Amino acid sequence: MASSWLHPRDELVETMRRIYRYKMTTTSGGNLSIRDADGGIWITPARVDKGRLNSSDIVCVRPDGTREGLHPPSSEFPFHREIYRRRPDIKAIVHAHPGALVAFSICRLIPDTRVQVLAHAVCGKIAYAAYACPGSEELGRNIAETFAGGADCVMLENHGVVIGGRDLKDAFQRFETLEYVAQTLCKAAALGKINTLTDAQLVERALPGLAELPHAGPTSREKELRTQICDFVQRSYRQRLLTSTVGSYSARLAGDEFVITPRRRDRLELEPSGMVRATINACEAGKRPSRAALLHALIYQKNPDVGAVINAQPAHASAFCMTDAALSTRTIPESFIMLNDVPRLRHACVVADAETIAAHVSLAKRPVILIENEGALVVGKNVLDAFDRLEVLEATCEALFLSRPLGPLVPMPDAAIDELKKVFGVE
């Protein structure tokens, strides 16, 4: 169910379960809240297992200070209340201690979101709040004053992070994106100098206006592909190959039509009816396709053998995209067979530079491309084939990171590569 239709109790529980499931908090750490239209604050309780939280555990603190619920509110309630008082535009708050953001907090550093266009747009302004004892009025003042200065995300010295949003989905997506950036930066720092984007490159480009496709009932094939894309998008999200805000999938229909994921929709809430049928210059009425739609259309035009396209930013592969470090696929046979040698393009916008990017794609020779500070572009004969390549890409990059403390990489020799090319038809 779309989170906007959930009661605050249920939305808080579902969001906390999601945060806990993906190891972005611990059993006892973190708290979430929603400010209701009547001024009441719905908040997660103190001393209740985050992995087994239920709707009945959620507490509501009314404007007059009275409380509804089985438990006391989180011990961090003072800073939630103070943020809402100082920032009326904020309607929901996420506080947690995810590993990468804690790493930045204990080093007193701010994750530089200028490494990716959408991450920079989603996260907004980031600032630090001075340390104070958890649960204290002083900590509440420190955090609220930082928010009052215009921050969207507040890093806490030696503590974690607090993030506000116009609703809980907005706050969660900002939180998840910032943690993803922090994770990727931690990995990229091990590879070398991190490349950041200029102000001009950080401008988020929208698709040109699209005409409306004539209304047509979906064929059985289209229904199948819509369902398949939803299944693989959600599978990709669960395996952390996508975040809730970034990543697009498409599959070819007949002629020049294809089905693609919509723009800025939570990847776990995607349903077949929400997919967008599109061509190079038109789409279904009333829908917005992914900003990568033009790129996907051009790839299908130029490559009749391509049946599916994915844009994704998995953390290990993205670390290579943020640096000049070479990505070797000559590690194990599967990596070379599935990925071939992976070229890297200098930073290119999937909207403005779609023609340039599409010209490099080839299912036989270049099924995977890394785009500097943008992520991975993967193609396949079908959705399963493309997803398999994406998985292998991230697994290969992770193995390269895990091997670094052990010693230098020993790639497969040329003779082994030649044999793979011959036996498996790699060009």
Question: Could you characterize the architecture of this molecule?
Answer:
The chain has helices spanning 8-21, 77-86, 99-106, 117-123, 137-148, 168-189, 220-238, 293-302, 315-321, 333-339, 354-358, 383-403, 414-424; strands spanning 31-35, 41-43, 59-61, 67-68, 92-96, 126-129, 153-156, 160-165, 211-212, 248-252, 258-260, 276-278, 282-283, 308-312, 344-345, 368-371, 375-380. The protein has 427 residues and is an alpha+beta fold. It has two domains: 3-189, L-fuculose-1-phosphate Aldolase (3-Layer(aba) Sandwich); 211-424, Class II aldolase/adducin N-terminal domain (L-fuculose-1-phosphate Aldolase). Helices cover 36% and strands 15% of the residues. It is globular and about 75 Å long. The protein contains 13 helices and 17 strands. The strands form three sheets. Strands 4-3-2-1-5-8-7-6 form an eight-stranded mixed sheet, sandwiched between helices. The longest helix is centred in the middle third of the chain and has 22 residues, at 168-189. InterPro entries: Aldolase_class_II_sugar_metab (IPR050197), Aldolase_II/adducin_N (IPR001303), Aldolase_II/adducin_N_sf (IPR036409).
